[in-house]
């Protein structure tokens, strides 16, 4: 634990509290502009990509409405790329790119509107509500996260204290993560179903399967963070193994634990969504993605994807807040 | 007749490394009596730290005998017979200064009231009153090292082992801490084993100076200091002081030439 960041060396060190606040505000101003620029650039690229991606449909609609398009025969148009079609018919391609019912690539505002409609304008208990589906996925995610984190911490404690466990468990933990989750998820669900486990738990098991690993790796590193001098010092007090663990190893590992938890919760969410895909689940973000792709509802797919991303960001953010509070209470920040 | 605290008889310690055996200690004979202030001085690799670690049972000698308070070093360690101050303060950043000093007391199972009393007492002893609730990063390097000495003193062992505790500090801070350490030793009557590579520090602090040299690590000279127990800082300009310092320097040079 020598790498604690002392405020002495931090930005704004040596200035008073109010001056530090002023520095922070200025730093925010300096970072907001580049961040916004990147967001606007990405949105611009997205809109631009919509034109060739949706050109075939745009041109078809235009020709059906009696507008002259190039080339005239649909058979000639079939072999053309979206970009060529858009260049040949710039007017109709742009006009029809951003408002289709089932676009190949929905425009950002379409996704935003769908997100809004499926969260704010419908009851959160309705199965048309993204909030409802997000909750279904999140409950599996959180259950799996708790199982995975507990398992990860227990394994790490064992690995740090037992050479045998270090040599026998760690390779299997690594191997477990090399198996594609999409391949193993259906098997987990089938096996658990055959022993009578259904509902939220199979999904949670897949979440746990993905989230225990970063916790194991981070906690092993964290529990081994104390250096030889710190361990020698506890020997001079004739401290027991348990005392060494609770007074030194565990507090030393806290920053590592939080780093792992952030990766773990995101992995848990991926696990829960993947767990919903092969089962034909009727609820959850994964089910929403699946239904969207069955019926060609691209706008629904994209809004479910964004829903998942927002959920992951929120979960990581919550852990970040807990981390800051916990580390500050420990005097580490 | 004062009591034996440390007794080493033809002590050997050989580390086996990939490049062959390394003789960290060879044939070391030394006795330390209660109340002595013994300094170990010598170039790096002379085994001064290794000897201290043997006394603390952090290393196992490969030959000879070593007793601490009449026990084996490991028994003495388990009886919490000594406090050890490392080169780095090594305070836990998640504990306050008071919390750090409390650490050995918690481990050794002192009752809460006793912990409180001892923390307050040792903080006063090292002149850190009012810093109990500060975190280590809020203190200067010298203050952190004082806190680490307080931590080693808190459980009141009669023997204090110090491994270059002031090595990383500047000379001004070091002078003051030397003075404070000496007065602390004078007040508490503890036995001190002190590793250093500073000649003035060794001469100023010690009742006995053990000069060591490397390859193999061994004792080349043991100097009894004629200086009085009470030593103001300016004793370092006295002829006696300079004479002892000279003899230490000679011992170090002779050891280097022989090696």
From TrEMBL, chain A:
Instruction: Please give the InterPro entries that the UniProt record associates with this protein.
Output: MetI-like, MetI-like_sf
Q: Where are the transmembrane segments?
A: 27-49, 132-160, 172-194, 200-220, 256-281, 301-322
For this record, the Gene Ontology CC terms, alphabetical, are: plasma membrane
Name the Gene3D superfamilies on file: MetI-like
Which residues belong to any copy of the ABC transmembrane type-1 domain? 130-323
Q: What subcellular compartments does it reside in?
A: Cell membrane
Q: Name one Pfam family in it.
A: BPD_transp_1
- Annotated keywords: Cell membrane, Membrane, Transmembrane, Transmembrane helix, Transport
Q: Name one GO biological process term.
A: transmembrane transport
Q: Does this entry carry the keyword Membrane?
A: yes
The answer on whether this UniProt entry bears the keyword Cell membrane reads: yes
Q: Which CDD domains match?
A: TM_PBP2 (cd06261)
Give the bilayer topology.
Answer: Multi-pass membrane protein
Q: State the PANTHER family in the record.
A: ABC TRANSPORTER PERMEASE PROTEIN HI_0355-RELATED, ALKANE SULFONATE ABC TRANSPORTER-RELATED, MEMBRANE SUBUNIT
Give the UniProt family note.
Belongs to the binding-protein-dependent transport system permease family.
* Name used for this protein in its record: Putative aliphatic sulfonates transport permease protein SsuC
Q: Tell me what gene encodes this.
A: ssuC_2
From TrEMBL, chain B:
Q: Which CDD domains match?
A: ABC_NrtD_SsuB_transporters (cd03293)
Q: Which residues form the ABC transporter domain?
A: 8-235
Query: SUPFAM superfamilies in the record, alphabetically?
Result: P-loop containing nucleoside triphosphate hydrolases (SSF52540)
Which Pfam families would you find in this protein's record?
ABC_tran
The EC number on file is 3.6.3.32
The first-level EC class reads hydrolase
The terms under GO molecular function for this entry are: ATP binding; ATP hydrolysis activity
Supply the alphabetized keyword list: ATP-binding, Hydrolase, Nucleotide-binding, Transport
Q: What top-level branch of life does the organism fall under? A: Bacteria
Q: What does the sequence similarity comment in the record state about its family?
A: Belongs to the ABC transporter superfamily.
Q: What is this protein called?
A: Carnitine transport ATP-binding protein OpuCA
What species was this sequence derived from?
A: Palleronia marisminoris
